[in-house]
Design brief:
The chain contains 2 helices and 6 strands; from the N terminus they run E-E-E-E-E-E-H-H. It has 117 residues and is of the alpha+beta class. The protein has a 4-stranded antiparallel beta sheet. Bound molecules: zinc ion. The site of zinc ion has 8 residues, from loops.
């Protein structure tokens, strides 16, 4: 068991943050992201530095495990990247909104007898 330097709470070594006081337990957090098939063999590594100068570093790694390039962004700009990468969702049409409000998913259909269902 590890111990939080801030509050003294016990925590597991793998924890990134203290569950008792939210103190970061690491100076950096690293994630690797798989490429699109057209860039097979490469990887995107994103490192979040939890230092007095917080920033996020994006680096592209090749098949040999060498970083080909990197750029660091501040927290605000990295947040803009996160918003840019959100999945694109289709805008609901006014008709969709009206149908949802009316509790219907499909337009009314007429039965053989001519009644609305
Ligand atoms: Zn703590």
């Amino acid at each position: 068991m590890a111990q939080c330097a801030r509050c003294g709470g016990e925590l597991e070594e793998r924890f990134r943050f203290c569950p008792w006081c939210a103190q970061p337990q690491r100076k950096k957090i690293v994630e690797f992201f798989s490429p699109h098939p057209r860039d097979a063999g490469k990887a995107l590594r994103i490192t979040r530095y939890l230092t007095e100068d917080p920033h996020i570093r994006f680096s592209v790694w090749n098949e040999s495990g060498v970083a080909e390039g990197a750029v660091s962004l501040d927290e605000r700009e990295a947040g803009r990247v996160a918003r840019f990468l959100r999945p694109v969702t289709r805008q609901a049409s006014l008709l969709d909104v009206a149908r949802r409000a009316a509790g219907r998913r499909r337009p009314r259909t007429r039965s053989r007898t001519g009644e609305c269902r």
